[in-house]
Amino acid sequence: MIIELNMAGEVPIYVQLRNQIVMGIGKGELKVGEKLPTVRQMALDAGVNTMTVNKAYQVLKAEGFIEIDRRHGATVRPAEDVSGAFREKLEEELELLSAEARLKGVEQSEFLALCEKIFSGMSPEWETV
């Protein structure tokens, strides 16, 4: 998986890194049980500080996407059942995206088609274990 970060963008680097890893998992580029690079290696590969990678890994751990073991490093976790908290976050973010789309003149059918296209691009192998 290739990580592409926008160093001049407004989104913090650790958030970009987190998002890239989540996308990699969702698209099946990273499989359950697959080891992620060490913090040092990821920092070297991405050209960022180790603290930035560590922060991204800690966020991913807190969100349940990876597990971290001192002996084995960071690995991709099996999917969990969608909790009420995640559904609430999802609804809030979709509501904001829907509002922005409507304000920018995107038709409902176009918005839903785009959602379907993106969602269907995610790996079908990524299922709740």
TrEMBL record:
Domain HTH gntR-type intervals: 11-79
Keywords: DNA-binding, Transcription, Transcription regulation
Classification via SUPFAM superfamilies: Winged helix' DNA-binding domain
Keyword Transcription assigned: yes
GO molecular function: DNA binding; DNA-binding transcription factor activity
Record bears the keyword DNA-binding: yes
UniProt xrefs under PANTHER family: GNTR-FAMILY TRANSCRIPTIONAL REGULATOR (PTHR38445:SF12), HTH-TYPE TRANSCRIPTIONAL REPRESSOR YTRA (PTHR38445)
Entry protein name: DNA-binding transcriptional regulator YhcF (GntR family)
Highest classification ranks of the organism: Bacteria, Bacillati, Bacillota, Clostridia, Lachnospirales
